[in-house]
Design brief:
This protein has about 350 residues and is of the alpha+beta class. It is about 30% helix and about 25% strand. Helix 5 packs across helix 9. The structure holds zinc ion. Zinc ion binds next to helix 5 and strand 13.
Length: about 350
């Protein structure tokens, strides 16, 4: 399986937070040939391991499997679905989105309904309609029909965006945050040969609502070093001011110095920087972004785990369609492989 093919398949999977099953099964299949063991914990983290020499340090690589989405909270009498947001989503991006409602009876297509322009007042045109006043239309004529189609409170809702290649290097897709981390994780395990340390590849659950899966996975794995593989904001688009988001698409993987939940451990940050320099891999440094990654929880596990983050810069992150550069993905893989190779020198 080529890296880009894995990324395409993973991006097209639906795995709204708490319902990561499809992604987990695909990752299990992809990881299996390259690791000594794959298992799942009680809450659904996927834990794969490639063992090094007896007594060697343990590194935990973590990529969250979940994506932001919606959840049905009420079925209105006329069959329209009110919803809650799962994870950080900008309300302005929801209007008129194509969605899939995941019911026990199978997936249903729908759209976030909107009032046509013909009948909006001037006032209405200027206003943002917040998520509480939006609804999903699955074509049901009333509540009974919607229920008959399988809809119930708590069904998760994902966006409909198929992976697409925009240029040789640039691709568009949904849930790159964090299927790109998942694809990198698989590729890293594939490329690692004769590892000198124990390498755990963990697909985590429920990152988008508070880094929950990583919390228990790190406790279980007890790593000496933690590295999260994730996605970050590419601030190279119109409307983003200088310094607001320093990372640019195509200029290399991003190393977190500090974010809202983590100050990267200096030894881990240096390990990543040295690995990049030794292998002439471009990289970017980032600090001051709101939000965090699984590394924040790994770092605080047990009596502390030196941790860091390798991210791929993505434009339009947390929207239904993001854009990334495949060179950044390849460089992130090379950097993670190089860093894992140096872990036993440093820890
Ligand atoms: Zn993420």
């Amino acid at each position: 399986m080529k890296l880009i093919e894995a990324l395409e398949k993973l991006s097209n999977m639906d795995g709204v937070t708490g319902r990561e099953d499809q992604v987990r099964e695909l990752m299990r299949e992809y990881l299996k040939p390259y690791v000594d063991e794959v298992r799942e914990d009680k809450l659904g983290n996927l834990i794969a391991v490639k063992r090094g020499k007896e007594g060697s340090p343990t590194v935990m690589l973590a990529a969250h499997m979940d994506e932001v989405g919606l959840m049905v909270k009420n079925i209105k009498k006329k069959g329209f679905l009110q919803f809650a947001k799962i994870g950080g989503i900008d309300d302005r991006q929801l209007l008129a989105q194509n969605v899939v409602v995941h019911t026990d009876k199978g997936p249903l297509r729908g759209v976030v309904g909107s009032k046509p322009v013909h009948i909006q007042t001037d006032e209405e045109r200027k206003k943002v309609i917040n998520a509480d006043n939006l609804f999903i239309d699955v074509g049901a004529k009333d509540r009974e029909e919607a229920e008959g189609m399988g809809v119930q409170v708590g069904d998760v809702v994902s966006f409909v965006t198929k992976f697409a290649r925009l240029t040789d290097k640039v691709v568009l897709g949904k849930a790159f945050d964090n299927r790109v981390g998942c694809a990198i994780l698989i590729e890293v395990m594939k490329r690692l040969k004769n590892v000198s340390c124990n390498v755990y590849a963990v697909g985590t659950i429920q990152e988008e609502v508070g880094l929950r899966g990583a919390t228990i996975a790190a406790f279980h794995v007890e790593p000496d070093v933690g590295i999260a593989l994730d996605c970050t904001v590419a601030g190279d688009t119109p409307g983003v001011g200088e310094g607001e988001a320093p990372a640019k698409m195509g200029e290399g993987p991003v190393l977190t110095v500090a974010d809202a939940g983590l100050i990267a451990h200096p030894k881990v940050l240096q390990l990543l920087i040295d690995s990049a320099k030794e292998h002439e891999i471009p990289f970017q440094l980032e600090t001051g972004i709101r939000g965090s990654t699984d590394a924040a929880r790994i770092a605080l596990s047990r009596d502390g785990v030196p941790s860091g983050v390798i991210s791929v810069p993505a434009r339009y992150i947390h929207s239904p369609a993001a854009i990334i550069d495949l060179d950044d993905v390849e460089h992130a893989v090379e950097l993670a492989v190089a860093a894992v190779g140096k872990v036993s020198e440093v820890f």
